[in-house]
Amino acid sequence: MAENRQHPRVKAVHLIHFTSFDPLDVPEKMGIGATLDLSVGGIKFWATESLPVGAVIDFEIAIADEILSPGGRIVHVCEVEEDRYIVGVEFTRICIFDMERIRAFVTGRAAVRGTI
């Protein structure tokens, strides 16, 4: 089944730090992980604990020599083995600077791989 995505995504491994928030916007869980793929619209990453679908989450993502800080909403979580989860996030709060840095990264990677 073909995916119908609004934004191109590329496989990318970057270190991240995240903080998820409860419904009252109180920090709930913090952790580190690594991205699996990235697009202007969101991110998929590895985590060592389950995170609640629908929760708000903030990131710090190291891309090249910059730290980006987008925020979003967790849209899916899949346990792939004990204490290993794949988490999908839709960006809902992202500044223009971070969006343009991600767009440049994705466009550059996709062009190299011939996927644009």
Q: Brief overview, please?
A:
The chain has 116 residues and is of the alpha+beta class.
Can you tell me about this structure?
There is one protein chain. This protein has a single domain, classed as predicted glycosyltransferase like domains (Thrombin, subunit H, Beta Barrel), CATH 2.40.10. Helices cover 16% and strands 53% of the residues. A 6-stranded antiparallel beta barrel has the order 2-3-4-8-7-5. Strand 5 and strand 6 form a beta hairpin. The longest helix has 18 residues.
- Under CATH, the topology is which? Thrombin, subunit H
Query: Number of helical segments?
Result: 1
Q: Could you say how many structural domains there are in total? A: 1
Describe the largest sheet: 6 strands, antiparallel, barrel
Shape: globular
What is the CA–CA distance across the termini?
A: 20 Å
Sheet/helix structural class: alpha+beta
Secondary structure: elements and pairs:
Blueprint: E1 9-11, E2 15-21, E3 27-39, E4 42-47, E5 56-63, E6 66-68, E7 71-81, E8 84-93, H1 96-113
Antiparallel strand pairs: 1-3, 2-3, 2-5, 3-4, 4-8, 5-6, 5-7, 7-8
